[in-house]
């Protein structure tokens, strides 16, 4: 079940008592025709209107399939296209296709597939996400920074009008259920309980990548959206295993890949025509018999990734064998660099300083949930507190 939430940023010391309720996050964990749910505890099943249609005090395995517009339960037509599987006691876990999850599961029939959504406490969600995104062995201050931006990312993406808030893949944040949980990460999450970062009294858009190659990218150059806390700037801290890499592309490979972008000839060379402020490609050309086939914007970055590039912060040189691509970094480079956070933490910087460096101008605070007003829902302003600085 889902309730509309309003968020405001307050000092953590204020977030207690009636204001201590945690956000519930809904994560898309599967879209397929058949699934198997095992609930090894007392539970109940509700229809789309909230009516309890089944209750069990013992473990039950549910084999579910979408067929003829209805969800089939163990081969029998339920007559419904939505089912909610809810535990009767909190802090227990269930298994979806053999993977253990905390919280509850909602099943929505859509076309020929079942859309499976896991609803759970945001702090439990982070217990899976943070170690899936950052090694638990890394310094605690880096893990705390990752926990804060993961929490902020989730809260910023709350979508009461949709079936779910987030996906479970790299397109959102990697979520693997209980399999990725780790006690060292649990410490980082508990030490940052309810903390998020905000800008202009709203939760920030906390994009992050593995390694920016020594220079962060601005949101404007990557996505065309100018956010003042996602800027291009030198980063002396981001040093990882893919801070420097090289690709050798033959002319036949270049020709084949370029034809996927509309190129018609036989490639004899490749050049980079224009860079962004952070040194990422904005325009490139595939050369053939004196002619130049230009690609710009997303297509310029796309062909670098099609070559196998880890980022678009690259240089290119043509020789008699083909093209040599020399690159730096892994990922889009916007916002926090995970290897940069590791490097800063190893040099003694705190999580606040890490966040202040990668999201200049943001503030840190805690969230609370405001319930509906008696007559109408009113929006409470966000109060950004504790401005962050890295130096």
Automatic annotation (TrEMBL):
<dbReference type="InterPro" id="IPR013693">
    <property type="entry name" value="SpoIID/LytB_N"/>
</dbReference>
<protein>
    <submittedName>
        <fullName>Sporulation protein</fullName>
    </submittedName>
</protein>
<dbReference type="Pfam" id="PF08486">
    <property type="entry name" value="SpoIID"/>
</dbReference>
<keyword id="KW-0732">Signal</keyword>
<feature type="domain" description="Sporulation stage II protein D amidase enhancer LytB N-terminal">
    <location>
        <begin position="111"/>
        <end position="198"/>
    </location>
</feature>
<feature type="signal peptide">
    <location>
        <begin position="1"/>
        <end position="20"/>
    </location>
</feature>
<dbReference type="InterPro" id="IPR013486">
    <property type="entry name" value="SpoIID/LytB"/>
</dbReference>
<dbReference type="InterPro" id="IPR051922">
    <property type="entry name" value="Bact_Sporulation_Assoc"/>
</dbReference>
């Amino acid at each position: 079940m889902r309730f509309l939430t309003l968020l405001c940023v307050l000092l953590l010391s204020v977030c207690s008592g009636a204001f201590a309720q945690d956000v519930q996050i809904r994560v898309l964990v599967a879209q397929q025709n058949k699934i198997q749910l095992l609930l090894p505890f007392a539970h109940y099943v509700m229809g789309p209107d909230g009516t309890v249609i089944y209750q069990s005090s013992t473990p039950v395995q549910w084999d579910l399939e979408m067929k003829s517009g209805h969800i089939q339960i163990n081969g029998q037509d339920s007559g419904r296209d939505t089912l909610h599987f809810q535990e009767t006691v909190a802090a227990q876990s269930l298994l979806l296709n053999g993977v253990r999850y905390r919280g509850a599961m909602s099943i929505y029939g859509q076309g020929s597939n079942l859309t499976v959504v896991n609803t759970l406490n945001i702090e439990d969600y982070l217990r899976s996400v943070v170690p899936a995104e950052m090694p638990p062995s890394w310094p605690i201050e880096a893990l705390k920074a990752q926990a804060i931006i993961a929490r902020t990312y989730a809260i910023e993406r709350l979508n009461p009008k949709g079936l779910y808030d987030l996906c479970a893949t790299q397109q959102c944040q990697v979520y693997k259920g209980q399999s990725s949980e780790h006690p060292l990460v649990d410490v980082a999450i508990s030490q940052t309980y309810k903390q998020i970062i905000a800008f202009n009294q709203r939760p920030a858009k906390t994009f992050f990548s593995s390694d920016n190659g020594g220079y962060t990218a601005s949101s404007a150059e990557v996505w065309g959206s100018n956010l003042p806390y996602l800027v291009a700037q030198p980063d002396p801290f981001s040093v990882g295993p893919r801070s420097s890499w090289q690709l050798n592309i033959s002319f036949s490979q270049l020709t084949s890949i370029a034809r996927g972008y509309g190129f018609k000839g036989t490639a004899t060379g490749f050049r980079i025509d224009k860079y962004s402020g952070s040194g990422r490609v904005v325009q490139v050309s595939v050369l053939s018999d004196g002619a130049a086939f230009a690609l710009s914007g997303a297509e310029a970055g796309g062909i670098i990734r099609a070559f196998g590039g880890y980022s678009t912060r690259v240089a290119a040189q043509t020789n008699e064998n083909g093209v040599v691509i020399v690159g730096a970094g892994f990922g889009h480079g916007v916002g926090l660099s995970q290897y940069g956070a590791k490097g800063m933490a190893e040099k003694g910087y705190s999580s606040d300083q890490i966040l202040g460096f990668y999201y200049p101008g943001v503030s840190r605070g805690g969230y609370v949930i405001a319930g509906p007003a008696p007559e109408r829902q009113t929006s409470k302003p966000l109060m950004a507190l504790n401005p962050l600085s890295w130096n």
